Amino acid sequence: MKKIILIISLIQSLAYSDFKNVNLKDYITFISKEFKQTFLIDTDLSKDITILVDKDIKKHTYKQILKTALNNQGFELIKNNNFYFIQEKNSYKDNIYYIKLNYLNLADIKEYLSFMNTTHGIIKKTNTLYLKTHLDNYKKIKTHIKNLDTPPLQKKIKINILEIDTSRIINKQLDLITGLKKASILGIDFILEFLSNPFSTSSNFSSNQVNAVFTYLNEKGYTKIISSPTLTIRHNEPTSFNIINNVPYLTGDTTDTDTNTIQN
């Protein structure tokens, strides 16, 4: 048993003797002397970071080991002319970034921004989002917003509200059709059928045909255009319009004269 423990201890001693536990800043100082180059170090680089270095490493690998060690700690080695400087990676350092919103507003993405753990706000005058976050996070947010910030789904609907004298249209249908034909308005039979009985047929005719007929009917006194709004309907947004107009109705007196006499 003693022999086994002794052998294991000897192997461990040999293995650990091949490596050296070095403070990262001391390692940078060593490389600076070896290559006779200046290294500027960010004050945020901790003095407590150590690396385990093989004592037999080759000189050409010194800087690669340093780059790897710095990268693991969120720093980077940058060459500038004849010297190097070590700084915290921009991708891990919070900065202020701006994203112009075209169709979105802050309420549309507020929950997402909270999920991404960013400090954010909106410049109302230009609808510009500002963020305080690191570069990698900003890039992800910018890509996500770009995919969402597109023109909203919408449709435009033309509505014509008419007061129609249907009895006159039916009684004067022949004269009306003749007049419309003289005005070179196409599809009139179909449209007149729709006007006199709107629920008996579909409305597959062009807007130009409809507008031409409505204009003619209005000019000849068959109809009266109450309103002609154009509505824009957007996805997930309520749409409404109000028309205030006095609706005429007949008033009068009804007199019931009973000439019968009941006698007991």
Kindly estimate the percentage of residues that lie in beta strands according to DSSP.
15-25%
Largest sheet: 3 strands, mixed
Provide a count of the helices.
Answer: 9
Quaternary organisation: single chain
Residues in helices, as a percent range: 25-40%
What is the SS-derived class? alpha+beta
**Nearest-angstrom radius of gyration?**
42 Å
Low-confidence stretches: 1-17
Shape: rod-shaped
Query: Helices and strands, in N-to-C order?
Result: HEHEEHEEEHEEHEEHHHHEE
What spatial order of strands do you see in the largest sheet? 2-5-4
Descriptive overview:
One of its GO terms (cellular component) is type II protein secretion system complex. Keywords: Membrane, Signal. This is Type II secretion system protein D. Its main location: membrane. It comes from uncultured Campylobacterales bacterium. The chain has helices spanning 2-17, 24-35, 62-72, 106-115, 135-148, 166-171, 173-182, 188-196, 207-219, and strands spanning 19-23, 38-41, 50-54, 75-80, 83-88, 95-100, 119-123, 128-133, 154-158, 161-164, 223-227, 230-234. It is built from 9 helices and 12 strands. With 264 residues, it is of the alpha+beta class. Mean pLDDT is 72; it is low at 1-17. α2 packs antiparallel against α3 (62-72). The strands form 5 sheets. It has a 3-stranded mixed sheet, with helices on one face. A 3-stranded antiparallel sheet has the order 6-8-7, covered by helices on one side. Strands 1-3 form a two-stranded antiparallel ribbon. β4 (75-80) and β5 form a beta hairpin. The protein has 3 domains: 17-88, Phage tail protein beta-alpha-beta fold (3-Layer(bab) Sandwich); 92-151, 2-Layer Sandwich (Ribosomal Protein S8, Chain: A, domain 1); 156-234, no CATH class.
